[in-house]
Amino acid sequence: MPGGTPASPGEMVERLVAGDRRAAARLITLIEDQSELSGEVMKLVYPHSGRAVILGLTGSGGSGKSTLINHLIARFRRKGQRVGVVAVDPSSPFSGGALLGDRLRFQSHSLDPGVYIRSMGSRGYLGGLARATGDVVRIMEAMGNDLVMVETLGAGQDEIDIIDVVQTCLLILTPGMGDDIQAMKAGIMEVADLIVLNKADLDGATACRKALEATIGLAGGKGEGGWTPPVIPTVATGSRPEDVRGIDELVEAIEAHQAYLSRSLTLEAVRARRVERELGLVFKDEVEKLVFKALKGTGKKRDYIEAILAGRGDPYSIVEEVLGAFVKD
Amino acid sequence: MSRGRAFKEAEAGCGQVNWDDYLKAYYDKPESARTWSGYEVKEIYTPADRAGQDYRRDIGDAGQYPFTRGIHPNMFRGRYWTRREVVGIGSPADTHERAAFCFEQGGTGLNTIADVTYEMGLDADHPWAVNEVGLTGVNITSLRDMETLVGDIPLDKVSWSVITASTAAAVTMAQYVAVAQAKGYDLSLLRGSIQNDPIHFRYCGFRPACPLDLSIKLGADVMEFCTRHMPKWYYTTVNMYDLREQGITAPQEVAFGLGIARCYINELIQRGLDIDQFAPRFTFYVSCHVDFFEEIAKIRAARRMWARLLKERYGAKDPRSMQFRFAVHTAGCSLIPQQPLNNLVRIAYEALAAVLGGVQSLHCCSYDEPMCLPTEKGHLQALRTQQIIAYETGVTNVADPLGGSYYVESLTDKMEEEALKVMQQVEDQGGMEEAIRTEWLDRQFEMEAVKRQREVDDGQKLIVGVNIFTSEPEKATPLGVQRIPEQSAQQQIEEVRRLKAERDETKLNRAIRRLREDAQAGRNTIPAMIEATKALATTGEILGTVRQVFGYAYDPMGIIESPFN
Amino acid sequence: MGKEKIKVIVSKVGLDGHDRGAKVVASLLREAGLEVVYLGLYQTPEGIIQAAVDEDADVIGLSYLSGEHLVYTPKIVEEMRRNGLDDVLLLVGGSFPPEDIPLMKQMGVDEVFRGGSLTEDIVGYIRRNARQEA
Q1: Which residue on chain A is closest to B440 by alpha carbon?
Q2: Judging by DSSP bridges, how do beta strands A231-233 and C35-43 pair with one another?
Q3: Cα A44 from Cα A14, distance rounded (Å)
Q4: CB-CB under 8 Å, A25 with C55
Q5: Domain range for residue B172?
Q6: For the whole model, what pTM was predicted?
């Protein structure tokens, strides 16, 4: 904010709910910084969230997720929906830095007042990436977005946990990259609601699609009433408008899944799962903070480590002892 | 790391001298035993290194297959290379004026460069163009602009290198031919070249203007048209120079350049042309960077590789098809803004390497390249650099004077070996077009660029003025700054608007219709482009019409709709 | 906790297609621990500034290599002012005469890094000057 005292969380959330992008941006920064104000902010944001459609797009780098998002933004905007996008990229484990290059592919939507885009590094969040992303999604919901898309890499447990935040999860694969096999191994396929086979114009696309459908057939439907994840071929990148294919079908499939969720009451289960996870994550986070806050400055943490190394204890007994003391208090 | 004290004005006496540093400097030696591209070299090369050499097979005399030593038997004793300084500044009239200056000062070839708006295929009055017209070259929106640019230059006497690289080159060819025909010249007698290498230009920005299929189509249209109607014209200058400017190594420069050339060759063969019909008019634009011997070896290797490629892979019979004909642009990326007069020295060495490499046409950068367009003085220095080499140094008296050097021949072999490895990498990607489509090539450029910067940051590569022998930043450019007069752009934009308002709409529409039909029918589009140019269709209109036929947006920037729909 | 990460927008403006330097700087800033939003080619001043707002950027880094620096800098600065981004650092790199550096600084550019700059100088400057109020 230009000059003066910074606005209070209450003022910022008020502006956020009115659709102010600057407020949204600042609040998200507070979450990314794991600021002490985060808790207060999220308490104020929470009541305004929870109603948007939340899509997750996951898949390895080079699969075309960002280009697909670019098309999806355009389609949903045409339907009059306000769209938020969270694009997560991996932070370097060594330097902590990140190259956030997803935005580039949908930057043309930057000046659309109905679209809000935010890039995030996966940087070392104490509570895990899932919590931070979950909070950011809630902020985007509170801002007034009807639909929020979360783009991640889908590699690593952190990123898979993000799936619990979303309602409809799209897994983006491409033919011949070998990641169709990898995805099955990673367990991601169990979680995906839609499999998008992008770059479907490449050799081997048909065979790949058949193989995927066969695997899905073996696994059986997800959820009650059975939702069988469809495989949707797309060609997201084309220098010509006519080269782009499959986007209409993809939008239809997304809407079909959303309808299935409502119809089968799975949506409530999904929402419950999201909340359960948030509760768990916040608990875990806050308890951890509490314990380490109590230990801070006492030198006890160092004592514990030395004791373990000297063979006079182990992490399990020590934690049991410490938590036991907390519970008594 | 910094070697040597940063320069500041001297104080009286040796009190400031650090004698330990002095001794270190006295005993100093090269830190690296590698070439710029990273290849290890020995302390000395001897006949033992040339033991397996077969002179006849692998080297040959100059003018003899495989042309390692040069494409003409007597090289510069027969004719000097063309002293062809690139000129492009402001409006067509401004550029014409600077071109005239170069002629007066002894330049022997004309070389004009397009600005970014023209290369993107935009008219001067396009919303994205109005801010940038004339800043880095000349924009030729209409026939009138080309007429102004040509002015009173006798096209039958002057060899003209027209540097339009992108798909707009097709329009440039049409504009040039239209003016030449209006002036009554016989096309078959005109000498010159057009860069016309849209594929490489995808790596210089310009991707919206150069979709791969359209690049090959229009590039080959120009090549085919010239092959049939302008036998003295060089219809492409495959531009390895710009690729090198991305930060790649010398062998990569050759490998990727030849790879792109093959895309065009394959297309022309598919159109039914015989290799010997067109290959003699293929030319290349090559960089000369600062590692003196590596650049010379690179050029010699490229000559040998091209000769073998044409003979063995394409079955060429005419020796002229096998001759690697090239122009050199000294490496812009080797120059730095710090201590700019040092660039004169770098450029001189690079130009010398080009000459010792047997170049046909040479552009020396102006020392102020990292800062602005060349001033007249800058241009003059560049030209004089060439003239001193030509008239004073004596290196031109003997063809390939470094031939037979144990080192140079060994390094030539090394450059070829490494370039062939890179070409194999491209084949492993499925060929050049696949390497381009999958963006494998983009990744190579990005990786190499980061490597180069790291080398400088770490002190692995030493650059005077950057990480050794630094000084306080200059406040002024030694020979002045070239500014583009504001009214040049404004005037050109107004003229374009007036032209569009006043021209004969019927004639224009008829010509555009013909162009569209020819493009749809898969015919060569140049004749229709010539007619359209004469009907005062503009660059954006001509290119846009063809783009639409191929399914692309009329306007590369996606703003303007075709007025002919 | 406090924010250790600094967010940088790296972008080109207008038609200039020379993006080698911008890409290299983006990569190396990442290695130095910064978060870089790389916008690439053909950006407008409005688009860049909107990204800076949305991303809550601390630094905007522009690259000029086609003589357009005096054309676009005033527009960029104007957009920054209109959007209340006065505390965001504006850095410029690329190719221009030294005479234009004081001009650009007068317009509102905070620092200039021409070709031949070392990465540590750029990173050092950003670390010392970004997020002063934090």
Answers
A1: A62
A2: unpaired
A3: 9
A4: yes
A5: 47-446
A6: 0.91
Residue B299: inside a domain, yes or no?
yes
Region C46-66 average pLDDT = 97
Give the chain A residue whose CA is nearest to the CA of B549.
A240
Same domain? A289 vs A210 = no
Min Cα separation A243/chain B (Å) = 9
Sequence-distant (≥ 6) Cβ neighbours of residue A66 within 8 angstroms: A87, A102, A104, A105, A106, A151
- What tens digit of pLDDT does each residue of A119-150 get? 999 887 655 777 889 999 999 999 999 999 99
User: Is A192 contained in some domain?
Assistant: yes
- Smallest CA-to-CA distance from A62 within A117, A101, A14 is with A101
Contacts of C61 in chain A (CB under 8 A): none
Kindly determine whether residue B550 and residue A240, on different chains, have CB atoms separated by under 8 Å.
yes
* Any domain includes B425: yes
| Confidence class for position C125, pLDDT limits 50, 70, 90 | very high
A275-289 pLDDT, tens digit per residue, is 888 888 888 888 887
Say if residues B489 and B90 touch (Cβ distance below 8 Å).
yes
Higher pLDDT, B90 or A298: B90
Assess contact for A72 and A250: CB atoms under 8 A: yes
Chain A residue with Cα closest to C40: A104
**Are residues A98 and A203 both part of a single domain?**
yes
**For the residues A104-113, what does the mean pLDDT come to?**
94
User: Is residue B129, in this structure, part of any structural domain at all?
Assistant: yes
Q: Is the pLDDT of residue C3 over 70?
A: no
The residue among B552, B557, B559 with the most chain A CBs within 10 A of its CB, best to mutate, is B552
DSSP A87-120: EEEPBPTTT--EEE-SHHHHGGGTT-TTEEEEEE
What per-residue confidence (pLDDT) applies to A220?
59
Residue A255 sits in the same domain as residue A289? no
pLDDT tens for A234-243 read 999 877 888 8
Q: Is residue B381 part of a domain?
A: yes
CATH superfamily assigned to domain C7-127 = Cobalamin-binding domain (3.40.50.280)
Domain that holds residue A205: 50-264
Report the gap between the CA of A211 and the closest CA in chain B (Å): 24
Q: Which residue of C has its CA nearest to B442?
A: C20
Q: Does A240 touch chain B (CB under 8 A)?
A: yes
CB contact under 8 A, B337 and C19: no
In sequence order, the β-bridge partners of residue B110 are B160
Q: In angstroms, how far is CA C102 from the centroid of its own chain?
A: 16
Task: Output the average pLDDT for chain C.
Answer: 93
- Give me the total of CB pairs closer than 8 Å, taking one residue from chain A and one from chain B: 11
In this structure, the answer to whether residues A127 and A160 fall within a common structural domain is: yes
- Whether residue A36 is contained in a domain is answered as no
C2 pLDDT above the threshold of 50: no
Tell me which residues of chain C have a C-beta less than 8 Å from any C-beta of chain B.
Answer: 14-20, 23-24, 27-28, 41-42, 66-68, 71-72, 95-100, 114-116, 118-120
Q: Kindly list the domain boundaries of chain C, sorted by start residue.
A: 7-127
Q: Which of the residues A86, A119, A122, A289 would you substitute to probe the C interface, choosing the one with the greatest number of C C-beta atoms within 10 Å?
A: A119
Helix axes A21-32, C45-54, angle to 10 degrees: 50
Distance from CA of A194 to the nearest CA of B (A): 25
Q: Is the pLDDT of residue A227 over 80?
A: yes
Q: What is the pLDDT of residue B559?
A: 94
Based on the fold, state whether residues A59 and A105 are members of the same structural domain: yes
Identity of the residue in C23, C72, C97 whose CB atom sits nearest the CB atom of B477: C97
Residues B139, B117: contact at Cβ < 8 Å?
A: yes
For residue B474, which residues of chain C lie inside 8 Å, CB to CB?
Answer: 98
B207, closest residue in chain A (CA to CA):
A239
> Between chains, do C98 and B474 touch, taking CB under 8 Å as contact?
yes
**Same domain, residue pair A198 and A305:** no
Provide the number of structural domains found in chain B.
1
Domain containing residue B293: CATH number: 3.20.20.240
Which positions of chain B have pLDDT values less than 50? 1-2
Q: How far apart are the first and last CA of chain A?
A: 43
Q: Which of residues 230-249 of B touch C (CB under 8 A)?
A: 245-247
Mean pLDDT in chain A? 85
Please state, in angstroms and rounded to a whole number, the distance separating the CA atoms of residues A162 and A160: 5
| B276-317 pLDDT, tens digit each | 999 999 999 999 999 999 999 999 999 999 999 999 999 999
- Spatial distance between the Cα atoms of B286 and B244, rounded to a whole number of angstroms: 8
